[in-house]
Design brief:
The chain is of the alpha/beta class. The protein folds into 3 domains: 205 residues, Rossmann fold; 182 residues, P-loop containing nucleotide triphosphate hydrolases (Rossmann fold, 3-Layer(aba) Sandwich); 53 residues. The chain has 15 helices and 13 strands. The strands form 3 sheets. It has a 6-stranded mixed sheet with strand order 6-7-5-8-9-10, sandwiched between helices. Helix 11 links the parallel strand 8 and strand 9. It is elongated. Monomer. Associates with the 50S ribosomal subunit.
Length: 448
């Protein structure tokens, strides 16, 4: 079926025969060409595309007209024709002119990395806020690309229609429509930002500590979130399985109440439109008491993925943490402590596991876990509890044995360290936050 068929439907878009190309450009790349191509294929699979072939090209002198060299474009065109390709994904950021020229020369509908990620986000956004953020990012991206013959503003399916549509639009009318729509979306997102600020202020008055999960997409954040909170957040072996942030209460030893937040996964070359649009959501990270950076330590590009995550955190105003020095302290480099979780240790061989265990023993900001196999989760809970409770006060309280309500309250809210009993009374040594001690004194009339 020709890609220029205007009757393209949802099933065709999802099952499109796809060719994935990664142009390796001059300069330092965070991922190897093989890893980057594998990630691009993962992104394509996440939206149900049928990958027929994938290949990377070394581009020594990027062309303003097509990015790739002339011979490379001819080779891709021949490959696309022979394999009956419907869709070309170029895993790089293309200008509108480059995108149009590639489509003209290869005769296949073409999208770049930003367009693909926006398409995934458009399909995955489940909440009203998420849809607002993705639509704003999409319109910002699309505003400069209205020269394309199949550009349109109608939603044909869950995504934003890069993969199929009704045909040419009236460019000037669309531009005016985009400007008006973007202005409204920004007003709506400002309201979301104010609402989030109120919610954060309410949590801080409570006060409940907040722990934010961050990490590269598919690092295992949602699986960990589900194990720790007994929730049912989507956790599949897909890039960007989670888009909308989720918050749940988490039970920690000696801690009355804490909130765990699961966030969207990061990725290398995350579109600037998405970073800007999702700033209101990502602000949850900037106000957390603890940041837990979940890493897929079994991934061959784990170090590069770490660098990408830290770069995005830095863009959000959170200082970078370097682990080049195993004895370094993250809290010395940022106001928010960062705990690194090296996840998926069950996938490592014995030698690699021993090597990482030795590294982790030298740095108290690193823990080894397997969220899927529940390995190391108890140690994680105690580590988080210790960090939250570092400002706690320890007191010795003497209560009558009959004062069951006060005794139960202390066990529930704090960490009871010692208990001494006689026939009439019970003496407890308890660690509690200053706020909880105030509440205890108010409820039960005890004080220092």
């Amino acid at each position: 079926m020709s890609v220029f068929n205007r009757d393209t439907d949802d099933e065709f878009a999802r099952g499109a025969r796809t060719l994935v190309i990664y142009p390796e450009l001059p300069g330092k790349q965070s991922l190897s060409p093989e890893a980057r191509l594998q990630e691009a294929c993962g992104l394509a699979l996440a939206i149900g595309l049928n990958i027929i072939e994938s290949k990377y090209y070394r581009v020594r002198s990027p062309r303003a007209s097509t990015l790739l060299g002339g011979g490379q474009v001819e080779e891709i065109a021949e490959m696309a024709a022979n394999l009956e390709i419907d869709l070309l994904i170029v895993d790089s950021n293309l200008t509108a002119i480059q995108q149009r020229n590639l489509e003209d020369k290869i005769q296949v509908k073409t999208i770049d990395r930003t367009g693909l990620i926006l398409e995934i986000f458009g399909e995955r956004a489940a909440t009203a806020e998420g849809r607002l953020q993705v639509e704003l990012a999409h319109l910002d991206y699309q505003a400069g690309r209205l020269v394309r013959s199949w550009t349109h503003l109608e939603r044909q399916r869950g995504g934003f229609g890069f993969l199929g549509g009704p045909g040419e639009t009236q460019i000037e009318a669309d531009r005016r429509m985009i400007r008006d729509r973007m202005a409204k979306l920004r007003r709506d997102l400002e309201e979301v930002k104010r609402t989030r600020s109120l919610h954060r202020a309410r949590r801080q008055r409570a006060p409940w500590p907040t722990i934010a999960l961050v990490g590269y997409t598919n690092a295992g954040k949602s699986t960990l979130f589900n194990k720790l909170t007994h929730a049912d957040v989507m956790a599949e072996d897909l890039l960007f399985a989670t888009l909308d942030p989720t918050m749940r209460q988490i039970q920690l030893p000696g801690v009355d109440k804490a909130i765990l937040s699961d966030t969207v996964g990061f990725v290398s070359d995350l579109p600037t439109q998405l970073v800007a649009a999702f700033r209101a959501t990502l602000e949850e990270v900037t106000t957390a008491d603890i940041i837990i950076h979940v890493r897929d330590i079994a991934h061959p590009a784990s170090d590069a993925q770490r660098d990408d995550v830290l770069a995005i955190l830095s863009a959000l105003g959170i200082g970078e943490q370097s682990l080049d020095d195993p004895d370094s302290d993250a809290s010395a480099r940022t106001d928010i402590p960062i705990l690194e979780l090296w996840n998926k240790v069950d996938l490592l061989n014995a030698d690699r596991l021993e090597e990482l265990q030795n590294l982790a023993q030298r740095n108290n900001n690193i823990l080894l876990i397997s969220a899927e196999k529940r390995i190391g989760l108890d140690a994680l809970r105690h580590n988080i509890s210790d960090r939250i409770s570092k400002d706690n006060e320890t007191r010795t309280v003497k209560l009558a044995n009959s004062d069951g309500a006060a005794i139960a309250w202390l066990h529930n809210k704090g960490a009871v360290q010692t208990i001494a009993e006689d026939t009439e009374c019970m003496t407890l040594t308890v660690s509690l936050s200053p706020q909880n001690w105030g509440q205890f004194d108010k409820l039960f009339g005890h004080s220092d």
